[in-house]
Amino acid sequence: MQYLHTMVRVTNVEDSLRFYCNGLGLEEVKRIDNEKGRFTLIFLGAPGDSGGQVELTYNWDPEEYSGGRNFGHLAYRVKDIYALCQHLSDMGVVINRPPRDGHMAFVRSPDGISIELIQDGDLPPQEPWLSMPNTGSW
Fold it and tell me: Catalytic amino acids?
């Protein structure tokens, strides 16, 4: 058995790519436009990691999605959780669970998918994250 990918339905390709690529730093690996099925699949991977990917599925005909919370979350190990959270915050992304402990944070994609960020190794707690309250749910 081999883990392949996690599929996440998205409602706006540009917003999603801005979040996953410009924000989290993932890279587009492959894109499939299926005219007959009226959908686009965009596969994203973490640089240097040929393992599991995220498949963004964009259905061309508008649909309303709910249940991002019951999906669970995607998780990524990161080199500097403070720098990434600052970068995302500067992009206007809400840090739902700040990295108060220097180890873990949660944010949400434009479609409400919860993303867990886990620090590779240990960083000492630091401000402003240490005093920052939770916002919303993750």
Answer: 116
- Facing residues of 31 across strands? 42
Rounded to whole angstroms, how far apart are CA atoms 56 and 108? 15
Nearest CA-CA partner of 115 in 28, 25, 40, 41 = 25
41-84 tens-digit pLDDT: 999 999 998 888 999 989 999 877 776 544 667 888 899 999 99
Q: Report pTM.
A: 0.74
Say how far apart CA 18 and CA 31 lie, in whole Å: 16
DSSP annotation string for 106-130: EEE-TT--EEEEEESS-----TTGG
Written as six digits, the tokens of 30 are 């492959």
User: What is the rounded CA–CA span in Å between residue 78 and residue 2?
Assistant: 23
| DSSP type of residue 9 | E
What is the CB neighbour count within 10 angstroms for residue 91? 11
